[in-house]
Amino acid sequence: MAFMKPELIQEFSSRSGFSRSHIEEALKRKPNILSSSLEKTNKPKFKIFRDLGFSTNDVADILAVDPWILSRSVDDRIAPSILDLKSVVGSIPDVVKLLKTSAWFLKCDLQKTMMPNIEYLRSCGISSSQIVSYVFSFPRFFLHKPESIKQFIKRADDLGFDRKSNMFLAAIRMFSSMSEENWELKVKLSRKLGFSEDDILSTFWKTPQVFAVSERKIKEVTDFLLTRKDVSISFIISQPSVLVCSLEHRRKPRLLVIDTLESKNLLRRKVSLTTIYKMSEQNFREKYVHPYLKELENASMAIVGA
C-alpha cells in the first residue's frame, strides 16, 4: 500500500477545515494518524461528512476529538450511523451537536443496539421527545444490548412502575447503572433509616434517580435533615429529590442563609424546605442572599459569593 508523506496529509487536513490546533489534538490521541493512506482512508471520510451536510469545521471538531473514526468504514459504519442518528434526533445539525460530545457513536453498529432499543422503548409507550432528550443526556444508555434493556424494563414493571409515568425512562436508566445486589443494599439502608416498604416504592416512583445515589450520601443527607426540628421522614418521602442534590454545596449553605435571616427576623414568613431546595441558584441568591449581604457578613464566604 502506498502512503502519502505526513506533510501532505497535514496539508490536506488543513485544506479540509482542520486548524493547527485540530491537527495537534488529533495527533495527541492518535499519533499515527498522519501515516494513514490519504486516498483510501482520509478523503472518503471527509467526503461522506460533507455529502451528508456537515461543515468542514464540524468535521474537524469531531475528528479532532475522536480521530479513530477515520479507521471505520464509510459504507458499513460512518454513513449508516449518521443516518440512524438523524432518524432519531431529527436533523443533521442535531446529529452534529450530538457527535461533538459523543463521536464514538460512529464506531458502533447502531442497528444492533441503539435502533432496536429505541424501537422497543417506543413500544413501551415512551415518547420520541423523551428518548431524544435522553440520547443527548445519557447517550451510552442506548448502547446496551437489547436483551439488557428488556431486563431493566422488567425490573421496573415488577416494582409496579407505571409505564405512563414520565419517570418510567428514568427508572429504566437507573436500573442500567446498578446491579440487583446494589439495589437491594439501597433498599436495606432505606429500611434502617426508617422508610417503610410503601415509602421506598413511593420514593422510587417519584424520583428513581435517588437510588443511583451512593448509600453513604443517602445516609448522610437523611441523618442531616432529621436533625432539624422541622423535618420528619415524611418530608423526605414527599420530596425525595432532596436526597439527590449536594449536601455541602446546596443544602447546608442554603439552610445556613435561611437560619441566619430568620434569627434576625428579616423574613416576613417562614420559608419551606421545599422552596429552599427547589429554587435555582440564581433565584435563591437574588431573593435571599443579595438583598442581605450586610446581614450575612458573618456567614460563610462561599454563601455570599465573596
TrEMBL record:
A UniProt-annotated Pfam family: mTERF
Keyword tags: Transcription, Transcription regulation, Transcription termination, Transit peptide
Protein name: Uncharacterized protein
InterPro entries, per the entry: MTERF, MTERF_sf
Keyword Transcription: yes
Organism from which the protein derives: Hibiscus sabdariffa (roselle)
Family according to the record: Belongs to the mTERF family.
PANTHER family: CGI-12 PROTEIN-RELATED (PTHR13068), TRANSCRIPTION TERMINATION FACTOR MTERF6, CHLOROPLASTIC_MITOCHONDRIAL-LIKE (PTHR13068:SF130)
TM stretches of this protein: none
Organismal lineage: Eukaryota, Viridiplantae, Streptophyta, Embryophyta, Tracheophyta
SMART domains listed in its UniProt record: Mterf (SM00733)
